[in-house]
Amino acid sequence: MGLLRKALASKAVASIATPHTVDHYLDQLHPMLAINEVRGRVVEVLHETGSASTVVLRPNRTWTGFKPGQHVQFGVEVEGKRRVRVFSVSSSTERRDGLFSVSVKAHPDGYVSQFLHNGLQPKTLVFLSQAEGEFVLPDAVPDNLLLVSGGSGITPVMSMLRTLIDTGHQGKVTFLHYARSREDEMFSDDLDAIAASAPFANVVRVYTREPESGAELAGRFDVEHLKQLGIDLGSTLTYVCGPAGLIASVKDTYSEVDALDQLNMEFFKVPSIDLNAADATGTLTFDDSTLETPNDGRTILEQAEAAGLKPKYGCRMGVCNTCAIKKKHGAVRHVITGEIHASTDEVIKICVNTPVGDACVAL
Questions:
Q1: What is the span of the domain harbouring residue 99?
Q2: Is residue 9 part of a domain?
Q3: What is the pLDDT averaged over residues 34-62?
C-alpha cells in the first residue's frame, strides 16, 4: 500500500491526471480515498449543552495528526453547497482508536455550526485540512502551566488538558474556565472527573451569571483570581482562549508585571470595531472587480460582502488562511493586534484587517 501511495503521489501520475488531480479520480472509487486531500467520516455527534456539540471523526490516511491547541478547516456539504469553517480540535492526541474530535458552539447566525448541532448525522463525509495553528504547547511542558478559557474558547485548552493527562504529565496545571453558568458550560462531566482524578490539575470554574454557592472564585477575570490561586505570572507559562474582553483583561494583567513573554493568546471571536474611528476615511478599491466603496471602518471582508462580492473565508477570526489575498497598496490595521501594515503587494487576511485611509486589494 505504501508503494502504491508513493506511485500515485508521483509527478508522472499527476501529469497523466491533468487537468484534474489524482484525488479527483480516486474519489470516483471511494470518497475516503485520497493522496493529498484530508477527509473524514462522522462517527458520532455528542451534545455537550443545549447549544454545543462534539463531532467525533475518523480521518482518512492522508491525515497527519495534530498538536493540542490546533484547529482544522471543516467543510461539509449542505443543500448541495460545500461550506467551510474552522474549528478547534478538542480531543487528546493520545487516542488509540485513530479518531479525533472538534467541539462547536452553535451560534444563532452560524449556518454551519447550527447544522453541526442540529442536523449532522453519523457517516457524513467531511472535507478537512491538515491541523493548523501556533497556539500549541511546547515540546517540553514546564512544571507550572496555566490554561485560561472563556465560553467556547475552552475547546483548544481542553485538548491540551486531555493530552497532558494521557501522557502522564507530572507538573502543576491550573485550568481556569469562565462560563455563564454550569448549564452553559461545555465538558462539565469531564471536568468533574478530571478534578476528582488528576492530582496535578487544579480545575477551577467560574460561573459569571449563575455562580455556585461556595465557589472558590466569583465574577469576571481579575488579577485577584490569579493571586488567590497562587499563580506567579512571571514564571507560569499561560495560554488563554476566549472572547476579546477576557483576552484583553488577561493581556493587561500580564503587561503590568512585564510578563507578556509567558502569555499565549487565541481569540475565538474578532473584537468589535469602533466604526467611528478616525481610520474610517478614504476609499477601499477592489481591483479585480473594478469596484470601489467609501471605507466605513469595518473589516475588508465585511465591506467586500456589503459591496456584493463573495470572497472565500473560513473562520472569520484570523486563524485560517482561507480569506488571504494580496493588498496591492495602502495601509491596513489588524483588528486584534492593532498593528498597521503598509507594504505594497503584501498578503493579508481580510477578515481581521480594516483599511486605514485609501487601500486597494486584489479582489
A1: 37-128
A2: no
A3: 91
Helix ranges restricted to H, 241-357: 244-256, 300-306
Cβ–Cβ < 8 Å for 331, 357: yes
pLDDT value of residue 2: 59
H/E element holding 357?
A: strand 353-361
Number of domains in the chain: 3
Q: Does residue 218 sit in the same domain as residue 122? A: no
**Co-location of 249 and 288 in the same domain:** no
Mean pLDDT of 113-131: 92
Residue 355 has pLDDT above 80, yes or no: yes
Tens of pLDDT along 322-350? 899 999 999 999 888 788 888 888 999 99
**Single-letter amino acid, residue 216:** E
Burial of 318 (C-beta count, 10 Å sphere; 0-12/13-18/19+): buried
d(CA 46, CA 52): 9
Q: How far apart are CA 13 and CA 216, in angstroms?
A: 62
Strand 81-88 with 144-150, pairing: unpaired
DSSP string for 226-250: HHHTT--GGG-EEEEEE-HHHHHHH
Higher pLDDT, 31 or 221: 221
- For a pLDDT cut of 70, what percent of the chain falls above it? 87
Asked if residues 220 and 148 have their Cβ atoms less than 8 Å apart, the reply is no
Residues 232 and 155 reside in one and the same domain: yes
Last residue of a domain, which of 267, 300, 334? 267
Q: Is 228 part of a structural domain of the chain?
A: yes
Higher per-residue confidence, 4 vs 200: 200
Per-residue confidence (pLDDT) for residue 25, from 0 to 100: 47
Phi, psi of 258 (to 5 degrees): 55, 50
